[in-house]
Amino acid sequence: QVQLVESGGGLVQAGGSLRLSCAASGRTLSSYRMGWFRQAPGKEREFVGTIRWSVGSTYYADSVKGRFTISRDNAKNTVYLQMNSLKPEDTAVYYCAAAVVGTTTYNYWGQGTQVTVSS
């Protein structure tokens, strides 16, 4: 089992920045990739980006590429989502999730953290 706890959400003005954290516990994450997702009211959950824990390689959705950055801290077992140049359309509940490398299913999810971007 992997337990994930997100933090760092809040209210920010358009153009501002926030950094979300996802603290993981329960297992060594070297064989996992960590994903960030978001869900806005009335919309389906949307992929934001992912990082492969062991090598640090990242991949982003086009909607956030160049504005968001995913990183991880091995010592703290924590994944970060640095969000810059925020837009009102980035408003959503943000979730982190974990999937075993080589599989397509994210089996473990955090509880989510709200990000609200005002115009």
Report what the structure shows.
By secondary structure, the chain is mainly beta. It is 0% helix and 54% strand. The chain contains no helices and eleven strands. Strands 2, 4, 5, 6, 9, 10 and 11 form a seven-stranded mixed beta sheet that branches. A four-stranded antiparallel beta sheet has the order 1-3-8-7, with no helix packed on it. It is globular. 32% of the residues are buried.
Please supply descriptive tags for the structure shown above.
single chain, 119 residues, mainly beta, 4-stranded antiparallel sheet, 11 strands, 0% helix
* General shape: globular
Q: What is the number of helical segments per DSSP (H or I, 4+ residues)?
A: 0
Summarize the biggest pleated sheet: 7 strands, mixed
How large is the radius of gyration?
13 Å
Taking the alpha carbons of the first and last residues, their distance comes to 40 Å
Topology (SSEs and partners):
Blueprint: E1 3-7, E2 10-13, E3 18-25, E4 32-39, E5 46-52, E6 58-60, E7 68-73, E8 78-83, E9 92-100, E10 108-109, E11 113-118
Parallel strand pairs: 2-11
Antiparallel strand pairs: 1-3, 3-8, 4-5, 4-9, 5-6, 7-8, 9-10, 9-11
